[in-house]
Amino acid sequence: MNILLFGLTMASVFFAGAVYTLGSQYQDLQPDLSVPVANLPSIIVGGLAFMVSLLSILVAHEFGHYLAGRYHRTHVTLPYFIPCRSDWARWRRHPHERAAEE
Question: What pTM does this model have?
Fold first, then answer.
């Protein structure tokens, strides 16, 4: 299950990086999203660069938790990576807003 979720996370982060690269290269793109085939490699490289940089930070962070748990002899599992997490984990209200209301 961990490997499947990590693979889906890699795909979603790659897609986000490719879309970001696409948007930065084609500001005046038509609604049909037609991309010249000659520029497709740069979009793929942008997606890969984004994926590698973001996931290397995330993996290092999560394995820090895993290794700390092993060091302290607690029962820990390998990290679960949830694809598209930024869309699923949102604040209903920011904590500072709630503090201001009280």
Answer: 0.69
